[in-house]
Amino acid sequence: MNEVEVVVTHSERTTLRVGDTFLKVDADQARLDAEVEAMSLAPVPTPEVLWHKPHVLAIAALPGTTLGRLGGPATGSPTAWAAAGAAVRELHEAPLPPRTGRAGRDTAALAEELDTECALLVSNGILTAALVARNRRTAEAALRPWVPAFTHGDLQIAHVFIENDEVTGIIDWSEAGRGDALYDLATLTLGHEEHLADVLTGYGTAIDLDVIHAWWSLRSLLAVRWLAEHGFDPFAPGCEVDVLRAHR
Question: What pLDDT is attached to residue 231?
Answer without folding.
Answer: 84
